[in-house]
Specification:
heterodimer; A: about 110 residues; mainly beta; Immunoglobulin-like; six-stranded mixed β-sheet; globular; B: about 120 residues; seven-stranded mixed β-sheet; about 50% strand
Amino acid sequence: ELKVEQNPLFLSMQEGKNYTIYCNYSTTSDRLYWYRQDPGKSLESLFVLLSNGAVKQEGRLMASLDTKARLSTLHITAAVHDLSATYFCAAMIKAAGNKLTFGGGTRVLVKP
Amino acid sequence: EAGVAQSPRYKIIEKRQSVAFWCNPISGHATLYWYQQILGQGPKLLIQFQNNGVVDDSQLPKDRFSAERLKGVDSTLKIQPAKLEDSAVYLCASSLQRASRGIQYFGAGTRLSVL
């Protein structure tokens, strides 16, 4: 059974500094997703990582995938208040019908 | 392009009552998912439809939960009777059948409180 773990669970950030969220998964997966969720809102897709060594960047967010280590990271550069949200990673195995297994989420709070 | 529509947004019921949620996926999306998100946790898949058929319902508590997708478009999720532990946000998502990246698009969810 695929299990996905994120850490930390909560991250208090200072504006302007850099931080990393880690996502470990237990078995070989075909794809790794990162989603953002604002309080009371739905999940917004950020990145899809398809292969080992994949790196995707959008603004201050950069996601990478190491399939050998079964690890994905979400790096935040020069944090700003607008990035306050909960971030989820999710792994997918195509042979399991494209089912997403989510991590528990990392709640990010960026303070001025 | 319209997103995934869900209703109602909020529902408060007493335990042992029944409740139903409705979802309209993005037009053309063959795959539809229902997730349960308990406060402070990641979403957990309850059931996945491919057009009209069920692909995966292994985590659906079938003694009380049921779901259907008529005509391969809209879907309803029902709980009967509800328990206190069913309090959660119920998210509907949809995706293209053969999308290479397999992105799932989520609705705003229905927040259920069981008293």
